[in-house]
Protein 1
Amino acid sequence: EVLLVESGGGSVQAGGSLRLSCTSSTYISCIYDMSWYRQAPGKEHEFVSLIDSKGRTSYADSVKDRFTIYRGNAKIRVYLQMNNLEPEDTAMYSCHLSCTDGSYKAWGQGTQVTVSS
């Protein structure tokens, strides 16, 4: 089982920045994509960003041009750089790993991001 651990969440004022990290020390043999999702209280679970095994990225329209996803060099590691944060970005952010052959998926526990106006 792959254990994903997120960090980097916190409380910031609107316009501020945070960098979320998602790491795992577990070895996994498949080719995998990694993504970030978020869920605000009373709202649906929402896709934020994805980076595939080839480094191609995609973003939700609401975060495009403000957030950047990228992989780290070591093992399973992905980052989400969040700039110009807005109160609407307040949510629990979780990372997700998905093997491209469909053999395995994993979720982290999440890290809370709170943006005040």
Protein 2
Amino acid sequence: DVQLQASGGGSVQAGGSLRLSCVASGIPSDSYAVGWFRQAPGKEREFVAAVTWSGGKSYYAESVKGRFTISRDNAKSTTYLQMDSLKPEDTAVYYCETTVGSTLIRGQGTQVTVSS
């Protein structure tokens, strides 16, 4: 089975940091981009960041630029999202996603709660 396993969420105060991890398994391709998305209660799913297979290109939502950093370690099949200077509005369930062929693969999500 193709799976993405996200972890690393938690509760922090505003200004704090967290690092999320997304471990991929069973992906038949050796070249796939990974993205992080989030969804807060009562809000639509929102793009956060994405990184190419090589890690040479990364993309960020305007709301997280300069605070979040996406990276990956392909030897470990793991993509990271380093989140610094967290704000209460970053509170959401964070998901990692990739596409295998035309199939969207989404991890189970990890909760991030930022208190003021």
Protein 3
Amino acid sequence: QVSLVEIGGGLVEPGGSLRLSCTASGFNLSTNGMSWYRRTPGKSRALIVNLSSAGAGGVTFFVPSVKDRFTISSDNHANTVYLQMNNLRPEDTAEYFCNSRGLWGQGTQVTVSS
């Protein structure tokens, strides 16, 4: 059975940091592309990061609103990709999802508030 699971969301103050993880089961994430999306109430999921391959040599695209604040790393042994989010802003508040091979994780809520 193939699946993706995100964890790591929570409540953080503006300027704080969180690290989300996306762990794949049933397939090798390092040989596939993957993306991070986020969704705010009443809106569709919006792409924020695209990784052409979670393995070595992958090319990463960040949308301008998160570029220079968010970074990507991976642990191929754990079949996991991490989204490190720094200098978080209230407008980053959303439910965050990872996607690979057409699969979606269940999402994890990030709330940025003082």
